[in-house]
Specification:
219 residues, alpha/beta, Rossmann fold, Alpha-Beta Plaits, 2 domains, six-stranded parallel sheet, 23% strand, globular
Length: 219
Amino acid sequence: MYVIIVGGGNIGYYLAKTLAAEHHEVLLLEKDRIRYQTISAELGELVMQGDGCEVAIQRQAGFGRADVVVAVTGSDDDNLVVCQMAKMEHNVPRTISRVNDPRNEALFKTLGIDATVSSTKIIYNLIEQEVGGGEVIPLAALNRGNIEIVEIEIGPKSPVVGKTIRDLDLPTQALIISLIRGEQAILPTADSTLMEGDGVIALVTADKARQLRDLFAEP
């Protein structure tokens, strides 16, 4: 099976490694030159530099013979474009997309994406489950409190790389509840150091969500 993965962040990187270990043919597309150099030093010819949204790059990568295209960039717009082009331009049998904003999930399905994965939705589901003492945190309580669960992936140029959570100027009513590092979820402390590629899961009031994202954004 030939699988093309678009997006060389932690998700794409570990997915490529896992598929290659299972002896699948894999190609990982990453458009950022610095990130490409970092992961290609280990993965070699499994990685190709290029923008997965561009037709010429898709042809060079072999979209036309791919069995599956997986889009896992940090941009929902890019992920949607990649999967739609894979379907319409290259007749790829199966497309799978990461959805960063769970509100986009229904749109992706309506537009023909075969499967979507939302880390935020997974965390929501975990919150609904029993958390000890026979008590459950209901999602309705979060909605009534106007609280959102936000997922952010830390890029190589993010100003928070190397800082501890204690050092962050978090907006009021924001709380970091988990770090996703590689294939491991970490319950953070104030002294936890943030690293490139970390996924950050936070609770924040809706009016402060943009301020929180801006704190982690690359210049």
